[in-house]
Amino acid sequence: MSNLLDVKALNVTFPTVDGEVRASVDLNFSLNRGETLAIVGESGSGKSVSSLAIMGLHNRARTVISGEVIHHGTQGSTELISASDETVRKLRGKEMAMIFQDPMSSLHPYYSIGSQISEAWAIHNDGSKRDGMKRAIEMLDLVEIPSAAKRAHEFPHQFSGGMRQRAMIAMALVNNPSLLIADEPTTALDVTVQAQVLQLLQNMQKEFNMGVILITHDLGVVAEFADRVNVMYAGKIVETAGVEDLYYRSMHPYTIGLLRSIPRVDQIDNHRLDAIKGAPPSLINLPMACSFAPRCEYSSLVTGGLCTQSQPELEQKSAEHFARCFLPAERIAEVRS
Amino acid sequence: MTTPILEIKDLTKYFPISGGAFGKSKRAVKAVDGVDITVMPGETVGLVGESGCGKTTVGRTVMKLYEPTSGQIFFDGEEITNLRGRAMKPIRSKMQMIFQDPYSSLNPRHTVGRIISSSFEIHGINPVGGRRGAVQELLERVGLNPEHINRFPHEFSGGQRQRIGIARALALRPKLIVADEPVSALDVSIQAQVVNLLDDLQQEFGLSYLFVAHDLSVVQHIADRVVAMYLGKVMEEAPTAQLFAHPRHPYTKALLSAVPIPDPRVERSRERIILKGDLPSPANPPSGCVFSTRCWKATELCHQVAPLPLELTPGHRVACHFPE
Fold this sequence. Notes:
The structure holds two protein chains of two kinds.
Chain A: E1 3-16, E2 19-32, E3 36-40, H1 47-54, E4 64-73, E5 76-79, H2 85-91, E6 96-99, H3 103-106, H4 113-122, H5 129-142, H6 148-151, H7 161-172, E7 179-183, H8 191-208, E8 211-216, H9 219-225, E9 228-233, E10 236-242, H10 243-248, H11 253-261, H12 306-309, E11 315-318, E12 321-323, H13 329-336
Helix pairs in contact in A: 4-5, 4-7, 5-7, 7-8
Chain B: E1 6-17, E2 27-39, E3 44-48, H1 55-62, E4 70-75, E5 78-79, H2 85-92, E6 95-98, H3 112-122, H4 130-141, H5 158-170, E7 176-180, H6 188-205, E8 208-212, H7 216-222, E9 225-230, E10 233-239, H8 240-245, H9 250-258, H10 264-269, H11 300-304, E11 310-313, E12 316-318
Parallel strand pairs in B: 3-8, 3-9, 6-7, 7-8
Antiparallel strand pairs in B: 1-2, 1-4, 4-5, 9-10, 10-12, 11-12
């Protein structure tokens, strides 16, 4: 597996009249080809904001972005944050692509599905309209749209939700990208359709050997799909680990709390759910403290009130396993069980 | 035998599709097509299914927000199918609804106090200690600060707004609450809080819930009995533990297998049934069994004859020619 993406000290800040919203703070991670990294978090945790920054999709006039995003493509490496619009535009849609949550609002209602996919192809390839349409039909066939040649001429409203998301995947993959960012790709879909689309994404990933960043709040989808996981809370990565480490040896109280709070279909239970108390903080003027401390069950175990006085760093707890918490790994393991 | 708090018999709700010359409606969307559901006092019945299966329509028809096309609805032994307007009003105070979207179900121009006390006003109730006091008590009961009575909905988070919606539903001390996807718009860490609150309130006030949701994990946790719908019809109904452990209808089986489990080893070793295709249009449902177009067990019989629900074991009804 070769290195595909390096994100170093990425910060995304929105200046507002009420103060700076630090939507994504000091993000560091990397992604290999063929690998799936899941980014998990609640609304406002910064998961979408950081991936939009990777894709260069923020309005730079209203957003302050610092740090480095290095994409290692077939044509060499590019740093995307400082790169010109022109450079990013050449990569976007070709080397890196994105699919969004709501396929209805990311497809143009006036143009046929086929022409929208062929447009995405034509931006990065020389060829006639006919070539583009041929390629679009090929792609629709690949994402298992029945009678693709006919349906390519239909419009988004004639497609069901699941088919629209397939069409979005076809469009994203039309130029054979090395990086795919999927932002809540199945959240708007029913579970049976979600299962279809996730299976399709997995097949496509193998076929194209893509690195996939999967943004989701669904810990079930992560368990199924991810190799590694970043858990985000209030703009920061609070835990990062391989998928099994994260689920079976969680090191951050937030992750532990999340996993405990969700009921499962395969375990019949009647006990009360272990809810995390409180609510996520506002991202404006966050205090110099652990953002999770007010909701944390374990902060009393940390001596000297450290949790409310200074910010914990992302600390290595075991090989490939990092967590942003003052509590030593042994203590966490103790309280977790 | 105790009287069910809610009994729905052979309920149908068709929405006409207007079209053609003079707007004469020719066809209809069969949103609910012959549904029977019973809710006993103190019981939670989960109503599950995918979007378009008619579960929300059932909830709304029960509340008489829609007029049923045919069938009967009994509330606490009394038939309410044809009640409307003034006759329905005393019943409404005993059955209340919680909506999915805490953003659009609260009037943004009214204070929380006014939103909740409007129930008292409409029904001309003057609780002991005054309306304001009663509202503050309710706020406290659902876990909000009673001093926030003069605040507006936008000053609260999604989870808090859902608590306001719950307080409003509780104000008249109802017997039945129809909860339509009450936690699906909430963040994961907030969902558990609201589910626990609903649990507690049920204990405290002896409430019955008709809990409409697509999230099977939440329904598994909260419901005593589960009814699974597909394209306007009930496919399977069983006590929760039984339905989740031994689904007998192929649709329920596929639905359960599609829900990802937050446990990598379990999830990756699981066999999954992937249904082909999409939900057919409820305006033009397949002949025979409505699920036959996506069912891997379907035979000629299924395409021609709709199966009747059969009680295979006590309390476990399945509408399938070839149950598992």
